[in-house]
């Protein structure tokens, strides 16, 4: 969305969106004319102290947020003074453990951490009705298996845990001194009865927890705390303004692009890869490793396929090939002829394990069919194609009726900058892909829109569909090699899966 001089706007209201991602904290200022006034951010790093582990310390989140907010205050002080409400978006599933004094007990275990696969099997055995309650499989990325693992492996930390918060909700605690979470983010814990939108005592008890250790549940558009004075003064914000319930990052992205009605949705090419489609009812499909979660608005749900490595796989390939940038590597892939693409290696994009459709934390990346003739462009094409095939796997795993209701999908995330990648995806999914204004900051924009709703805004006005920047129509008659290679891609995974399990047991 274009920037605007807010002094010329008749309505001076401002809304602040905070998006706590895995690789960056973003903050965004939105005015009441739907103009993005400013966006800034600070990068984050992931710690991997052991194989399969993925952690960040919450205090690093706060330091990054503080740096971004001080920069925003210095550059846009007048706009900051007119902020009416704050919204939050965040990486899902992470476990922030607090003691009785509210102190962080250990680094947060993140969504892409794979240590709790055995705990998942134990949880499914302990609670046979788990899938019916939660609408989802037990996967290592979810929060509940992390606490099950913790009870077995770090019992002293588990015993001292007085509260478990999701990442964005720990930020809320620092902003408001209150403990709340929204239904969309809570859906990813495996502690929520997703259809009934309430905590499940059965699931909590299986992890040695109770409702007393959980934050209160609110809708994403509801007021969930107010900004306390010390933080407000430091960042140049009005005191006591509301902080909205907010949303998990994908639900927030949907709000940001205006995907709020059944059949609307998006493809995200971020660190992970996501296909998200809205529904007006709870549609669990756990056997296909599809997520069925609450949306960030009342009386709405969504289905979501998730792969753990998407644009991050392209980042890896850029480092591997020594290219100066991802754009340079994509240019090399785009320059390949059709015959060269047909002979490129196949890539299994499971660099961090996989969720939909395989639910396999031990899965690994594979470049299959390398020869002396292959260069950086061939590797880049293989990576882009492999991630796209993984997304097609995910799309095919969604509810059949819901999938047929999808007329087009918006495109969000860093990978959305590549028209070459977007066109390939549109053809594979056989749906138009639309790049919308604000797509690169959709989660932060969605957080700001939820703040607006918490301030009394009307959904029809606030959650409008973002303007279209470009459209990618599917090729109705794609080259036959594309689907032939996809068929080989789907055969490759089951052939190598036993080797990964063997390697895992050996370590």
Describe this entry's structure for a reader.
This protein has 20 helices and 24 strands. The longest helix is centred in the last third of the chain and has 27 residues, at 480-506. The protein is α+β, with helices and mostly antiparallel strands and 507 residues long. Helix 13 (326-334) packs across helix 15 (376-396).
Quickly list its features.
20 helices; alpha+beta; 507 residues; 24 strands; 5-stranded mixed β-sheet; 7-stranded mixed β-sheet; disordered N terminus; globular
Helical amount: 25-40%
Terminus-to-terminus distance: 49 Å
The count of helical stretches stands at 20
Enumerate the spans where pLDDT stays under 50 for 5 or more consecutive residues.
1-9
Strand order of the largest sheet: 18-19-17-16-22-23-24
Tell me what portion of residues adopts beta-strand conformation.
15-25%
Estimate the global geometry from the Cα principal axes. globular
Calculate the mean pLDDT score and round it: 93
From the helix content, strand content and strand pairing, which structural class follows? Answer: alpha+beta
- The overall strand count is 24
Largest sheet: 7 strands, mixed
Radius of gyration: 22 Å
Q: For this entry, what is the oligomeric state of its chains?
A: single chain
